[in-house]
TrEMBL record:
Protein name: Cupin domain-containing protein
Bilayer-crossing regions: none
Cupin type-2 domain span: 50-105
Top-level division of the source organism's lineage: Bacteria
Length: 116
């Protein structure tokens, strides 16, 4: 049957010295990742520059995304954003009072998208 059940809020590592990135699903075209942050941020001067598109949502807590052009976007519970491939960005901050749990979906640059 291949049934694999989990809980997005379960099995949080006790040691959160570093931000935790965990693949939930990976395939040739899509990767779904859970990210657990505890006041983490991307070091100043470091920028993500990913080869694939990213759609990310906050399931718990809060995260602030900063773009190279200075645009800052605050994401709370339920907020989501699409970050195009090679759009330089960083995590400016995450909640220090509670964990921030993100769900990120990565998919190929140029992949057609339909909004339903």
């Amino acid at each position: 049957m291949g049934l694999k059940r989990g809980n997005i809020f379960g099995e949080i590592p006790k040691d959160l010295t570093n931000e935790v990135f965990e693949d939930i699903i990976t395939s040739e075209r899509v990767r779904i990742e859970r990210i657990v942050s505890d006041g983490h941020f991307t070091p100043i001067g470091d920028w993500y520059d990913q080869a694939e598109n990213e759609w990310v949502t906050v399931l718990k807590g809060e995260g602030v995304i900063e773009y190279l052009d200075g645009t800052v976007v605050t994401l709370g519970v339920g907020d989501h954003i699409k970050i195009p491939a090679h759009e330089k960005h960083r995590v400016k901050s995450t909640s220090e009072s509670s964990l921030t749990i993100w769900l990120a979906v990565f998919y190929p640059k140029g992949e057609s998208e339909q909004k339903h």
